[in-house]
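Incident review: delayed structure delivery

Summary: a single-chain prediction request sat in the queue longer than the usual turnaround. Root cause was a stuck worker, restarted by the on-call engineer. No data loss occurred. The affected request and its eventual output are reproduced below so the record is complete for anyone auditing the incident later.

Affected input:
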Amino acid sequence: QVRLVESGGGSVQAGDSLTLSCVASGRTFSHYAMGWFRQAPGTEREFVTGISGGGGSSDYADSAKGRFTVSRDNAKNTVYLQMNSLKPDDTGVYYCAADRIAFRVPVATLENQYDSWGQGTQVTVSS
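Output delivered after worker restart:
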């Protein structure tokens, strides 16, 4: 399995931007598609976005489209989540996850399609 460590969470105001990072170790990073999920208090974890192993394909939840951008730097073993125009509803713990099927089509959106998970980073958006 690949080991994942997220960072970049914090407390921001509505309308602010935040960039999360997830660094992978232990395996060849480009061999994994990567995903971001989030979990708000009292809710189930939900898909936010995913990106293929080469970075050429991505998918977004409707709530993220137009505001969030996923990208990856395979030379740095890192996947990023750029979040703009944040809303209080974006509050939650954000997790990155690795899918060993690097070029799954379409990009995986279900939790059980991902093999490794990070510990999460808290994002709090105040109104």
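Verification: The mean pLDDT is 97.
Action items: add queue-age alerting; document worker restart procedure.
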